[in-house]
Amino acid sequence: MSPPRIIDPHAVPVAGHDQHLDPVAPDRLTAAGVRQQFHAAQGFEAPIRGDGGRLGDPSRPAASAAVLVGLVERDDGLQVLLTRRTEHLRDHAGQISFPGGRAEPEDASAEATALREAEEEVGLAPARVELLGRLPDYTTVTQYVVTPVVGIVHPPFDLQLDAFEVAEAFEVPLAWLMTPAHHRRHVFQYDGGQRQFLSMPWRRDPHAGEYFIWGATAAMLRNLYHFLRH
Predict the structure, then answer these.
(1) With the C-alpha atoms ordered 30, 35, 39, 41, is the resulting torsion angle positive or negative?
(2) What confidence tens digit (pLDDT) does each residue in 192-214 have?
(3) Is 16-229 CATH 3.10.120.10?
(4) Which end of the chain, N or C, is less packed with Cβ atoms under 10 Å?
(5) Per DSSP, what are the bridge partners of residue 184?
(6) Per residue in 195-207, is it b (16+ CB within 10 Å) or e — as a string?
(7) Is the pTM above the cut of 0.90?
(8) In this predicted model, what pLDDT tens digit does every residue of 45-65 receive, in sequence order?
(9) Structural contact between residues 113 and 107, judged by C-beta atoms closer than 8 angstroms
(10) Distance CA 70, CA 68 (A)
(11) Which residues, other chains included, contact 21 with Cβ-Cβ below 8 Å and sequence gap of 6+?
């Protein structure tokens, strides 16, 4: 029997913050620094590999998927391209996600899946993306084995959102997301066990609405943090 879904992650208690962890060095948060890290990194093992095998529904077969971890080059530093999914979708409705989705038979690789999905979901032309490499796969509780594909996104570009799947696209500073003091740990208790997850609530300014980054997206960002410090 699979564990209950987390309907309202905001209501799950915060177990702690991670301000005790070191931030990523500023030179690794630049396009050149990220490129160098992918060029030099060997033997990286992601600390968070997902809950699919432990908590996923065993009756639902695993499906391959990929997301684009797009790092947009801006004058004030790299920004992470994220989306807010529409509320009516079957999986991860209303959540903050990377552009991406299920692999199709015609996709030659995870990179092809990530680029195709990003173009379909937000209208990002593959020619604007400089692919750098992959992070280790992450398995979601909905039984998707997700490959995070990291790339530098070179402006200019005009996004055209798929209104069925994407309610909004926005950017968050990479430096903010890679600061572990902004990472919160939650523990969700249920009859028979518990789940833990991360969140990184972000606001453009104190008066703007909150983007509650959590779950698989937050976990993959945390893996990126460890990769950049590796």
Answers:
(1) positive
(2) 778 899 999 999 888 888 999 99
(3) no
(4) N
(5) 17, 199
(6) bebbbbebeeeee
(7) yes
(8) 999 999 765 555 566 678 999
(9) yes
(10) 5
(11) 180, 183
